[in-house]
Amino acid sequence: MVPVRFLLLIPLIALLNGYGVEARIRRYKWEVKNEFKSPDCYRKMVITINGRTPGPTIRAQQNDTIIVEVTNSLFTENIAIHWHGIRQIGTPWFDGSEGITQCPILPGTTFKYQFVVDRPGTYVYHAHYGMQRDSGLYGSIIVGLPDGESEPFAYDYDRNIILNDWYHNSTTEQAVGLSKVPFQWIGEPQSLLIHGRGRFNCSSLSVPSSDPGLCNTTNPDCFPFRLIVVPGKTYRLRVSSLTSLSALSFQIEGHKLTVVEADGHYVEPFVVQNLFIYSGETYSVLVKADQDPTTNYWITSNIVSRPAPNTPPGQGVLVYYPNHPRRSPLTIPPAAPVWNDSRPRMAQSQAIKARRGYIHTPPAVSDRVIVFLNTQNELNGRRRWSVNNVSFTHPLTPYLIALKHNLTHAFDQNPPPNGYDFLNYDIYERHPNANTTSSNGIYRLNFNSIVDVILQNANTMNPKNSETHPWHLHGHDFWVLGYGEGKFDMFNDPNKYNLVNPIMKNTVPVHPFGWTALRFKADNPGAWSFHCHIESHLFMGMGVVFAEGIEKVGKLPSSIMGCGQTQGL
């Protein structure tokens, strides 16, 4: 049995910018296994790390080395863990993307991840095999500044919260439905979780159970999340979303949220009542405990951008010390934003700028422009998501290994399209030809080239419907140059790009019937996934792979081998 957890600090001395800075090696041992849990009062099989979901929080300082030994104690499932937001400079094989950077971790085996956290900020980790993130395999990564350095904003205490949605069906049941003919959609989630806790209405079960433990609102697993605050103090809340499907709003009753960080980059501060957050995004907000201290206040999350009338809001409690932690607020929870009003969501996206004094100016022009049209299609009668009418499929041999060892038969050597029929495609209508193609071909980028990506949203296979897609890029941060409504105009919209103070992020939404423009430098040797962070959408083909500087990738560790054509390498 693997010990619950231990942390060994080994001082190292690194010289950065001419100053002596103490870096550390931080070691973790994790056992991943199945357990029965009731995070929303309904008991189901989940995936835990050392018995917990969310899993242990990794805490480190900039330039520390993280070593995580992961033992897969699942009986029948492989795993892989992605370190979301960590660029893996010099260690592309430890990105944790099964089928792209490594073979999966087999049941009964142990795999060691080792990487440097090179930037301070708020990050997450999660499963990157199948749809396992939806089963509870996720957690936080908090990277602080080196000793002696300070943030450009003041606060008294630092706390982190992970938001999630929750399904009662297993990920296997969901995957089977998504692959069926006819198509069986997973539906809306049964609950919303605030740091692993939610509340399902047990009386709403369609078939009452004779097992009193199946759904039990007195189970301590589902007692509301409670954040205890000291009156007058300011709190940095690191808020992350790892939802399987849902875009969310997050608010604390009666308190303003000042946004100061996004995906590890400082934001020019702005104040919101509701923080709109999409799967894969992380934010830091400052909250001052400046309300009546004799009462407690609601913390809520609500689904936006899609109708979910049967999903109750996520609810937690902001507890003013010394009030009793179990005391509920005297009010009803605050009203949720209108789910289908995209204007405030677009306004927040456009408000996020790099903080003065911390601006990384983007290159003035790019070397290459790729336009990705996001559509819903069918392939051999099965519902799929596609990019430029190509639905992505994983090869049996991970790309990084195939590229490094020149295994040309491991995947399609023909590149996917760079765009779509811009002039004739109507993004507001269901396309009359719903058929798509599939491929595991990749986009090869010239090393150190500047690449623009335009994400273009369109109508789904349902009339007058377009969905929000949060896109996440592995191995890089990108500049967010702009957002827009309607069809991207390649002749005029680039003139509106923000080249002065764009925020850098690793995850960004493309809004319904809208577009989002990104720019990044292909300067990190490796093979990197770029995909919609909605679990079912990636499972159904909504992703691509970029390859760059493969000749500069070091010797691959043998631990990532063992599948496809890697056997015997």
From TrEMBL:
Record-linked PANTHER family: L-ASCORBATE OXIDASE, MULTI-COPPER OXIDASE
Subunit: Dimer.
Domain spans labelled Plastocyanin-like: 33-143, 161-321, 433-549
Top EC group: oxidoreductase
Catalytic activity: 4 L-ascorbate + O2 = 4 monodehydro-L-ascorbate radical + 2 H2O
Cofactor(s) the protein needs: Cu cation
N-terminal signal peptide: 1-23
Location(s), subcellular: Secreted
A GO molecular function held by the record: copper ion binding
Entry protein name: L-ascorbate oxidase
EC numbers for this chain: 1.10.3.3
Keyword list, A-Z: Copper, Disulfide bond, Glycoprotein, Metal-binding, Oxidoreductase, Repeat, Secreted, Signal
GO cellular component term of the entry, any: extracellular region
Recorded family membership: Belongs to the multicopper oxidase family.
